[in-house]
From TrEMBL:
Monomer. Interacts with DnaB. HAMAP family: DNA_primase_DnaG. The lineage of its organism: Bacteria, Pseudomonadati, Pseudomonadota, Alphaproteobacteria, Rhodobacterales. The keyword Metal-binding applies. Its EC number is 2.7.7.101. A zinc finger (CHC2-type) spans 43-67. One of its GO terms (cellular component) is primosome complex. It catalyses: ssDNA + n NTP = ssDNA/pppN(pN)n-1 hybrid + (n-1) diphosphate. One of its GO terms (molecular function) is DNA binding. The keyword Transmembrane helix does not apply. This is DNA primase. Its cofactor is Zn(2+). Keywords: DNA replication, DNA-binding, DNA-directed RNA polymerase, Magnesium, Metal-binding, Nucleotidyltransferase, Primosome, Transcription, Transferase, Zinc, Zinc-finger.
């Protein structure tokens, strides 16, 4: 809401910055002069020993000569309590006894109603706190003691006890003159379809739930009866309390997070309380539900990267994985999540009691980025031993990337997932697939090595003659993909594994596949244009200067998609065979030092057969095809004659 300048003038006139700052600092009596409003202290915004934080109370401004922080009373409250500008104004106005400017009458009425309901919840909090020291709460006190909670912690979190009686609180509030319907509306009592209202919390340890400003908005309770239908129970949705837009320990955690620049998100009340007692006061918890978008928005208002520390059981892991889907559409630059996975079967409370606060700090320090959990969720327990299974993973990842609305985040997630995908599938690549030579393989029972003279054979030299063929083949494939990017996207997995030799064409392929699978581009054509921009030239024009590409109508942009796909696939099959021959010849040349003639013969025969199978059925009668067949025939003839064996 817009506030008039006169309101701020009066607020500043009524507010002493020195008094406000005194809640956070200790004035240096040697340097300060209260009579002149000239106050000095160690800065609350950075660690220091000398008093370099200065407040000019008459002018209403502060300045630190160490870290250069500066501002007025509103800014000081905003920074030290980690609240918004308007919240800081409301805090100061309340302390100064000022009414905020009038708003819409309906909004004013609603605010008054909420304030009245909050007062009722506050009365319930005080009542239950008093009950904790009574005779009927002995079992509750024993439980609190067994959980290791100190008296200070119980006071800090205002823990109470709800007696087992059906209407103990209801009658207490009625005795205070509170209307029955208002008691029910506040959520502390329930109204059955027939009969009188009754206390919602009975024989339970009670935890007050407050909003970011510290107003009581609901209650939570832990059952003392092990046979209770619900171990933990939260108040119902009311005018005050929206479970999906509230966090347990919100206000204190926000203030603590302003100092630590971090926020821990645990599963429940006891986890938050245990963390606070261990010195980790910047912890919150959702309230009986999975973390919602509303709660995420609250967390990101507190800090940029909340750390999710859910229980280490299956339910906790599933909750963390579900949260990924909630968070993906909301990601913004700098706003993300990290995950601290607890040991199996433990929550933060368990870990701290068994291993101490240092163990919890170590886990939090090792929190992992969200993209890692996303990858693990999509790959854990799955086997990718076939193209179809890998393609299924690719489809799943593309769907997840589409959920990210921010284009920059989408782009970076796509890059990170591509790296992980390549690392996963890289272990399956071998020299027969054209991704490196790999571990040499030899047939069983191979005889003695061949003569050294075989290394100078025509067969070994012939590998170099394949270079022109390979470049033409790769050029045709890349040209077809650039002209028909939708087909390239469909064939992404096969293209990525395709063995290629020409570095410039490999670059075009990799950049094209990156952009095709990135949700940053609204269609495949846009991905092609992005590819041209990134590589710095129009690869389509250069490729079109090659004769076999220029005259290949089945690869042209106007070619029928079905025909183009068949042509690209055929070229890919031939290239794979061509590169297989190169690898086999290269390996044969190297292995002539230590593999017998029969072994080399067998391997080259298998390579020739594979190449012939790939080339078979190609009906074009151009010169290129004739050259390939001539090479294949010549290779087969050389194998049959065993030209590398020394003749006697």
């Amino acid at each position: 809401m817009n506030l008039p300048p006169s309101f701020f003038d009066e607020l500043r006139a009524r507010t002493s910055l020195a008094a406000v700052a005194a809640r956070k600092v200790t004035w240096d009596s040697r340097k300060s002069n209260p009579g002149k409003g000239d106050m000095w202290a160690a800065c609350p915004f950075h660690q220091e020993k000398s008093a370099s934080f200065h407040v000019d109370d008459r002018k209403g401004f502060y300045y630190c000569f160490g870290c250069h922080a500066k501002g007025d009373a509103i800014g000081f409250v905003k920074e030290t309590e980690n609240v918004s500008f308007m919240e800081a104004v409301e805090i100061l106005a309340r302390e100064a006894g000022m009414q905020m400017p009038a708003r819409d009458p309906k909004a004013v009425a609603r605010a008054q109603e909420r304030a009245g309901l909050s007062d009722i919840v506050e009365m319930a909090v005080k009542f239950y706190r008093g009950q904790l020291s009574g005779a009927k709460a002995a079992a509750a006190r024993d439980y609190i003691s067994r959980r290791g909670l100190s008296k200070q912690t119980v006071e800090r979190f205002e823990i109470g006890y709800a007696p087992a009686g059906r209407t103990v609180l209801f009658e207490h509030l009625r005795g205070k003159g509170i209307d029955a319907k208002d008691i029910v509306a506040s959520g502390v009592a329930a109204q059955p379809d027939s009969g009188d209202p009754y206390d919602r919390f009975r024989d339970r340890i009670v935890f007050p739930i407050r909003d970011a400003r510290g107003r009581a908005i609901s209650l939570g309770g832990r059952a003392m009866d092990p046979n209770a239908r619900a171990k933990y129970l939260n108040g119902p949705e009311t005018e005050l309390f929206d479970k999906g837009r509230a966090l347990y320990n919100h206000g204190p955690a926000r203030e603590a997070a302003g100092k630590t620049q971090s926020l821990v998100v645990a599963e429940g009340y006891m986890d938050v309380i245990a963390l606070a007692q261990a010195g980790i006061g910047h912890a919150v918890a959702p309230l009986g539900t999975a973390i919602t978008q509303g709660q995420l928005a609250l967390m990101w208002r507190i800090t940029d990267e909340p750390v999710i520390a859910l229980d280490g059981d299956k339910a906790g892991i599933r909750a963390a994985q579900r949260l990924i889907d909630v968070a993906l559409p909301m990601l913004q630059p700098g706003k993300s999540l990290r995950f601290c996975m607890m040991p199996a079967g433990q929550d933060p409370d368990d870990l701290i009691r068994e291993s101490g606060a240092s163990a919890m700090h170590a886990l939090l320090d090792g929190a992992r980025p969200m993209v890692e959990l996303l990858w693990e969720r999509e790959t854990e327990g799955r086997v990718f031993d076939s193209p179809e299974r890998r393609a299924a993973l690719d489809a799943d990842l593309r769907k997840l990337l589409q959920m990210i609305e921010d284009p920059s985040i989408r782009n970076h997630y796509a890059a990170a997932l591509r790296e992980k995908r390549q690392a996963l599938f890289g272990g399956n690549r071998n020299r027969r697939g054209g991704f490196g030579k790999g571990v040499p393989w030899r047939p069983k029972g191979a005889p003695e090595p061949a003569s050294a003279g075989a290394r100078a054979s025509f067969l070994a030299r012939e590998a170099h003659a394949l270079d022109d063929h390979v470049r033409l083949r790769e050029s045709a494939i890349i040209a077809g993909c650039l002209n028909h990017p939708d087909i390239a996207l469909k064939l992404e997995a096969s293209l990525e594994r395709l063995p290629m030799a020409c570095a410039d064409l490999i670059t075009v392929r990799d950049v094209l596949l990156f952009h095709l699978t990135s949700p940053l581009h609204h269609d495949a054509s846009a991905a092609v244009e992005a590819t041209m921009t990134q590589i710095g030239y129009d690869a389509r024009e250069r490729l079109n200067t090659l004769g076999n590409v220029r005259v290949a109508r089945h690869l042209a942009p106007e070619a029928d998609a079905t025909v183009a796909q068949a042509a690209i696939l055929e070229e890919m099959a031939k290239l794979t065979a061509e590169m297989g021959i190169r690898d086999e010849v290269r390996d044969a040349e190297e292995d002539l030092h230590g593999v017998a003639d029969e072994g080399v013969t067998w391997r080259l025969q298998q390579a020739s057969l594979a190449r012939d199978r790939a080339l078979r059925g190609y009906k074009d009668e151009d010169a290129e095809t004739g050259g390939e067949q001539e090479l294949s025939d010549h290779l087969s003839r050389l194998i049959a004659e065993q030209v590398w064996i020394k003749k006697r």
